[in-house]
């Protein structure tokens, strides 16, 4: 019986990466991570802008949040995801966006622009920039603690496993997230501030896994 309960819990938790914040726990249909992700557009060639031209192939960024600073390093061998993150950070796309879905012992998720307006709460988890990113799933990048990865639509609606254009998650518990290896693009990792990830993972949440007190991304900037 105990093993059955654990299996059910993990299955329900996995749905977080494809479920909108407006859903209640335990509902397992594959609702889109982002309504915009259901479009046919896809990034094929993103390049860094001139202002960011001297960043290394594996740039370091600081994610300033209302709970502290998380420093991440992006991987050189996931260039589309790296360049997209750089582009959005430069455009200040993430400024003011919330971590809208938090599950202690699993992951913390953010990147939905709809979370800038509390009136959109029922739609949290469905927003994005209007495009998806082709998968860059690498066997050498697994869901270690602090892994930075992209949310996406489920396999049924998204057999190519293309990533959300903006929504990402950071792994809190690698054991719980191990089942995601080989299915989601991991494009970076936390190199400093893992205690901030722990702090966010421990905030009080409602029945939809949304933090009761807002956890906000203030801005994301490169470390030059």
Give a verbal description of the structure.
This protein has 224 residues and is an alpha+beta fold. It is 17% helix and 23% strand. It is built from four helices and nine strands. It has helices at 2-14, 79-90, 174-177, 194-201, and strands at residues 60-65, 68-74, 99-103, 107-110, 132-133, 147-152, 163-171, 186-192, 217-222. Strands 1, 2, 3, 4, 5, 6, 7, 8 and 9 form a nine-stranded antiparallel sheet that branches. The N and C termini lie far apart (53 Å). The model is unreliable at 1-16, 19-40 and 43-50 (pLDDT under 50).
Question: How do the helices and strands line up, and which of them pair or pack?
Answer:
Blueprint lengths: L1 H13 L45 E6 L2 E7 L4 H12 L8 E5 L3 E4 L21 E2 L13 E6 L10 E9 L2 H4 L8 E7 L1 H8 L15 E6 L2
Antiparallel strand pairs: 1-2, 1-9, 2-8, 3-4, 4-7, 5-7, 6-7, 6-8
Figure out the total of helices: 4
Can you summarize the main beta sheet? 9 strands, antiparallel
Helix content: 10-25%
Please state the average pLDDT score: 83
Radius of gyration: 16 Å
Number of strands: 9
How far is the N terminus from the C terminus?
53 Å
Which percent band covers the strand fraction? 15-25%
Q: Provide the succession of SSEs.
A: HEEHEEEEEHEHE
Low-confidence blocks of residues: 1-16, 19-40, 43-50
